[in-house]
Amino acid sequence: MSEPATLEVRGLRVSVEGKEILKGIDLVVRQGEVHALMGPNGSGKSTLANVIMGRPGYEVTDGRILFKGEDITGLAPDERARRGRTAYKAVKGEEISALAFRKHLKEKMALLGVDDAMVNRYVNQGFSGGEKKRNEILQLAVLEPEIAILDETDSGLDIDSLRQVATGIAQLIGPNLGVLLVTHYQRILNYITPDHVHVMMGGRIVMSGGKELAQELEQKGYEDIRRELGLEEQVGATT
């Protein structure tokens, strides 16, 4: 049995236009685990997600990003995506036919409760915010990555759309998928139970714990946590 895929961030420091945004991030996400990365606006959460995925415009000044032990810090976004995707040809030893792909797609649609009307439309044509997010979750299901980075998937969703999207993500969670879920609010965690919760402030991870930490954040708020940690004067980084 092969070892689970692991995404590891070691001592990551990142700057944008000379301003340091991430100030030494250490994080390990293993296949089969769900990590929630939380924090106030401007804490650096989305910056971390973007840097992990290789989005241009960020300067890594120190540290490394590793996937399955391989240093991917300098790889282009498409190369990183290929590292985390379960390629059909590699697994089955053959190219996927249109018929086989359609069957695979229909299985994932049934799992997520997505009807034909959605997939028969042009990509995102006339989609609501909730439909766009559900379409993204369907793509996630079809591609079957080993590690997924979900950056503020709950942003801008109403209560019903949030429940549909979060329930879809929860359906995909299991031993073959590791998730780094970046969110500002605790509400999505009403549907997705994280194994680990991390709190970012000022470009650093300042707290880590289990699912109960998310509930503590909901009760106290970020400002109380900031004061308890003696971080009143710490200025946030960026989203």
Q: Average pLDDT value?
A: 86
- What is the H-and-E element order? EEEHEEHHHHHEHEEEHH
Radius of gyration: 18 Å
Strand content: 25-35%
Shape field:
globular
Distance between the termini: 39 Å
The secondary structure category is alpha/beta
- Give me the number of helical elements: 9
What's the β-strand tally?
Answer: 9
Give, in spatial order, the strands making up the sheet with the most strands.
6-7-3-8-9
Helical content stands at: 25-40%
What's the story with the biggest beta sheet? 5 strands, mixed
Q: Which parts are unreliable, with pLDDT below 50 for 5 consecutive residues or more?
A: none
Assembly type:
single chain
Describe the structure.
The protein is an alpha/beta fold. The protein is built from nine helices and nine strands. Strands 6-7-3-8-9 form a five-stranded mixed sheet, sandwiched between helices. A four-stranded antiparallel sheet has the order 2-1-4-5, covered by helices on one side. Helix 6 runs parallel beside helix 7. The longest helix is centred in the middle third of the chain and has 15 residues, at 98-112. The chain is globular and about 55 Å long. The N and C termini lie far apart (39 Å). The model has no long low-confidence stretch (mean pLDDT 86).
